[in-house]
């Protein structure tokens, strides 16, 4: 619920805003998040001001939008912030979406089906299944390395430590 998401944000040190999606997703953000419009999304501060004179909820209405930018890292939260700065900061949502589409097209075009059979519904269904499976196979990273301030490093699942190289 929106309330549970807000309470989660209130319990996390450094959480300045939360975002709750109508499908039940909850995301917490620091103070670098920027407000944007998105249907079906509610967001707000970790705590609402309880003022009896004000009769409105502190949630952003469903007519408002939220733009959420996320950096990830297997190494550390500091490295995730660095990745966010390097990969996302200064780029528009549309530029990031276009770059993502182009990257997926490059990967999916690595395999070309030359003769799928006659143009029937069954053939198109087989192609749909094939490319869906290829997409899913490419979802998971094969490499754990990240470009850090110290060069290429990765978190080793064997030692649990950050080590140099691929």
Write the layout of secondary structure elements.
Blueprint: H1 2-11, E1 17-21, E2 26-29, E3 34-37, E4 41-44, E5 65-67, H2 77-87, H3 93-108, H4 121-139, E6 145-148, E7 151-155, E8 162-164
Tell me the β content.
Answer: 15-25%
Q: How many angstroms does the end-to-end distance come to?
A: 41 Å
Radius of gyration: 21 Å
* SS class: alpha+beta
Going across the major beta sheet, what is the strand order?
2-1-4
- Compute the average pLDDT: 82
Bulk shape: extended
> What's the helix-strand series?
HEEEEEHHHEEE
Count of helical stretches:
4
Helix content: 25-40%
Residue windows where pLDDT falls under 50 for at least 5 positions: none
The total strand number stands at 8
Largest sheet: 3 strands, antiparallel
Can you describe this structure?
The protein is built from four helices and eight strands; from the N terminus they run αβββββαααβββ. The protein has a three-stranded antiparallel β-sheet, covered by helices on one side. It has a three-stranded antiparallel β-sheet with strand order 6-7-8, with helices on one face. It starts with a helix and ends with a strand.
């Amino acid at each position: 619920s929106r309330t549970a998401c807000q309470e989660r944000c209130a319990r996390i040190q450094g959480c300045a805003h939360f975002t709750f999606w109508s499908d039940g997703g909850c995301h917490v953000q620091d103070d670098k998040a920027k407000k944007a419009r998105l249907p079906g999304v509610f967001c707000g501060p970790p705590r609402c001001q309880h003022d009896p004179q004000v009769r409105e909820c502190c949630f952003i209405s469903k007519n408002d939008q939220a733009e959420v930018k996320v950096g990830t890292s297997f190494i550390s939260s500091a490295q995730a912030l660095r990745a966010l700065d390097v990969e996302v900061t200064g780029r528009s949502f549309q530029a990031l979406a276009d770059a993502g589409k182009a990257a997926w097209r490059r990967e999916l075009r690595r395999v070309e089906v030359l003769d799928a059979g006659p143009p029937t519904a069954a053939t198109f269904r087989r192609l749909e299944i094939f490319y869906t499976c290829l997409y899913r196979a490419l979802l998971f990273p094969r490499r754990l390395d990240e470009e850090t301030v110290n060069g290429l490093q990765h978190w080793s699942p064997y030692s649990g430590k950050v080590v140099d190289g691929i």
